[in-house]
Amino acid sequence: MANHVVISDERCKACRLCIETCPTHSLEQGSRLNKSGYQFTRFVQNGCTACGLCFYMCPEPEAITVIKDDGKSGE
Amino acid sequence: MVKHTKPKTFYEDFVRKGGPGEKNTHYCPGCGHGNVHKLIAEVIDELGIQDRVIFCSPVGCSVFAYYYFDTGNIQCAHGRAPAVGTGLARSLENSIIISYQGDGDLAGIGMGAIMHAANRGEHIAVFFVNNAIYGMTGGQMAPTTIVGQKTLTTPLGRSAGRDGFPLTMCEIINNLAAPVFIERVSLGNAARILKAKKAIKQALVNQVEKKGFSFVEILSPCPINWKMQPIEARKWLIDKLEPVFPVKNFRNGDSQVKYDPPRPVSDEEMKKLFNLEKDISIKQKEEHISEQLVKLAGFGGQGVLSGGILLANCAIAEKHNTSWLPSYGPEMRGGTANAGVIISDGQIGSPLVDNPNFFIAMNGPSLDSFEDQVLPGGTILVNSSLIERKVNRSDIKTLYAPLTEIAQQAGAVAAATVAGITMYALSTGIIAVDTIRQVIPLSIKRKALIDENLKVVDAAREYYEKNLAKT
Amino acid sequence: MERQLIKGNEAVVFGALLGGATHFFGYPITPASEVAHMAAKQFPATGNCFLQAEDEVNAINMLYGAAAAGSRVMTASSGPGISLMAEGISYMAGAELPAVIVHVQRAGPGLGNIWPEQSDYNATVKGGGHGNYKNIVLAPFSAQEMCDFTYRSFELAEKYRMLVFVLADAYIGQIMESVTLPGDVKHAPRYDWALYGDRESRGNLISSILMNTELLSTHNWKLDDKYKKVAEELTEWEEYETEDADYLFVAFGVCARLCLSALSALRKQNIRIGLLRPKTLFPFPSKRLCELRKKIKTAIVVELNNGQMADDVELALRCAVPVHRYNWMGGKVPSTQDIIDRALKDLRG
Fold first, then answer.
1. Residue B329 to residue C66, Cβ atoms within 8 A
2. B:C CB pairs within 8 Å
3. DSSP secondary structure letters along C260-298
């Protein structure tokens, strides 16, 4: 499976630092609200390199998980 | 493959206030504390030191850091984390002590604690989160608030003339010899955050390698109290804070100070060390003595206090109970000095010798002060070397002896009181002169001084037997 | 061990080390400095840690850290220094950390002077810092007790997870007397609450912050139950000639020594007076005093303060017995005769 970012909807506080940071513009503000009332970020595949900058920019421990394509198919 | 995810040093659930576990932090959106927490947790994972870490939480927004870090945790009073870290580090040689502090905590109320911990080169890693404002209390001026910055307590902006300038902690700590690592980093953007991680890692590696005090100042945003959006806040951090607080490494080296902790001793060694008593053979008397209330008084430097201790030591050697109480403090530094010694075979009540039954007056002012207080039937031993007048009272026994001259001729003018103690022994028979001779070598270290003191004892005995024995 | 001539302030250090103390953090202040001097010598000599802190505020926080690490830790200070430690003392009480504080009282308020007073009775016995808490307070009246009380204070502190004060005064600190040192060396065991920087202790938290009213209320009541338990188990005092006593001295520290001398003089004049000397000030021997109120006609409380313990004595006696307050302040210490004269006047009328 290709490089991608998993956003935990309920963990996101919508600070948008990840969106601002992403060099491939693979993150954007979603339209839905989570239970805390934040309009959480969503991932859009746009050539994510799994660089991890969004992860480091994000202040929340488990809002962002970065998955790197390890060449294995079928996952 | 998961490349970046929640470090395992974080708790699975963040249990707070006794409520159900939560997954989010309590920090506001865009706050830098979360970034720093993640970096520290990741580094702890990478170094494999989770079990060894003790995390000192400060007072401030990060007061609840212990919600998050699955390590040893201790919450500290405002500004005192470096002192708490000192107590921990001095107790636990192999633990990794983290002091996590904010700007009010570290550079305001805790300025003394951080400076001295740094100056001692304590084995702690300090992560100083500088967001130029008081966060938890709602946005007041911090020691690091920049000139012109508006806060609740500087509504028109910080005025250097009124409030002083922001404190630059890295530069200040860089004046000290002991720290091994000092670096200022920024959370302004992702590249800076990755550099910050390196500094945090170095600070913790230094703890693993037992190198010493490591200090990382982290410029961090506080969007809520800066009244900015998170992205705007990061930009402001780069544009406004970084010029005041240059982001750079100040020091990365080895400790200039080394301390070898003392060697532990066994219980038996300790007991031996504390048993100051040495064997002396004293013949014990059968009959009980009457309670002795002895006062010695004179100039500081006449050996009044040490003479009293000698007498008390002799009393113990002869298996009596004894107490010694000095005048002390400023009086000891140059003025008059006096000591009261009580010797008894019963329980000693008041240790104060208000009314002595034996008074050794080493100088005139002492005789003037205490003559009237001597109990009727008691004795005054007058140091006639320094006191010209006679005792006025007739209801007491008086002994006149040139104690200072006796000591001087024996070669130890400072031991005049020893001559007095010797005459006390001869006059009352409460202690034996032989006891004094045996106790002196136990309480004086220098061999030459022992001989001189013993000579004083002999000279005093000779004088007493020749001139006073029949009185 | 043999009897040795040891100063009260120095006896503390021998008692502490034999009692298992491993850490001393302090800041010099007259008349407690000799404790630090001797500690600076003997702690390193026995492989232990002595560190002069930058001030009392941080000294007590070093105790906080070391106690959290399961170390047997102590400090020594006097009034102004203890005031500075009040914050840390309160935090330690809240976090239930055991440690020992030797308080050699001088005269206050403010800088006062360096002569003896017992004017920190309230600040020490009732708390001193903020919040609902108590310290165990031991009141030695001799150099021997300075040693013995400090020796056992660490175990008491750990048993109840409380601070133990050894509350002396300048005279008991300065006095030199024959002291027999305890024969056994004690050591701190491992505790399940402490931080050791290892896997077993990893989940432990040392903290005094409980943000939820329900949690803090529960915590405070738990502390209060503990203090009640301490009162039941630990109250200690000594009585002298109370069997046939019509009158009773109540005094601690150096005043108890003065009262002993006054007592034997008054007994010679056929005044049947006894002495009750609290060895623990918290817990206070209220129950025993309450019993004694049935047999004594008058109590005399002798203190170097403005009557701080006398309030507790009056309360314990339920005001059933007149209480005379003999107080001296400013560093003035009465002579035995002063006490005798006043007692004769008050008791013979």
1. no
2. 252
3. HHHHHHHHHTT--EEEEEESEEES--HHHHHHHTTT-SE
